[in-house]
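Before the break, one more example. Copy the sequence into your notebook; we will annotate it together after we see the structure.
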Amino acid sequence: MENDFSSVLLSDAVGEFAKLPGIGKKTALRLVLHFLKQPDEVVSGFTNSLSVMKSGVRFCEICKNISDNKICNICANTKRNHNIICVVENIKDVIALENTQQFFGVYHVLGGIISPLDGIAPSDLFITELIERIEKKKPDEIIFALNTTMEGDTTSFYLFKKISKFDVKISTIARGVAFGDELEYTDEITLGRSIKNRVGFEVGN
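Here is what the structure looks like once it is written out:
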């Protein structure tokens, strides 16, 4: 970025913060100046936590959710209903659904949705792992809880074709979530009702 500052170090730091989603140059400058005022141990704690997270975080071996251990806390919880698997796009959707306190099954995180325009193909997602999980665990129900966008519906239809050969109920969240909405931005009451009042998945939904 163009150096508008008297300090190259300050300019470089602002440039790095400005690379974050939703962070413009002015906000980046405020954040950098905030850290400049903090004690060394505060800044070190912040940067160290990011470094430790980046090197230590992993994918759950079962559901592909982000986890500190081989098995995430949700999959390790024996009180959850492991016969109901909710398929979501990413960890933000897991958090959104958990906040509703209306779902007590387990999850499968795809790591994205099919989007040819963005170069994301089925092979780029954890779809093979989902199929293998269904073959091995033989769950009672698979719930599609993907964003109600064209890409989300395309992904759901693709999964339906892959899963329909199994003896498993396939459902989707109720359309209380408006078309085009993302789950993470849907209020908890609406999302909770959508997962609780889910309906059978049909081609053309």
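The domain at 69-200 is CATH 3.40.1360.10 (Dna Topoisomerase Vi A Subunit; Chain: A, domain 2). The chain has two domains: 8-56, 69-200. Try to locate both features in your own notes.
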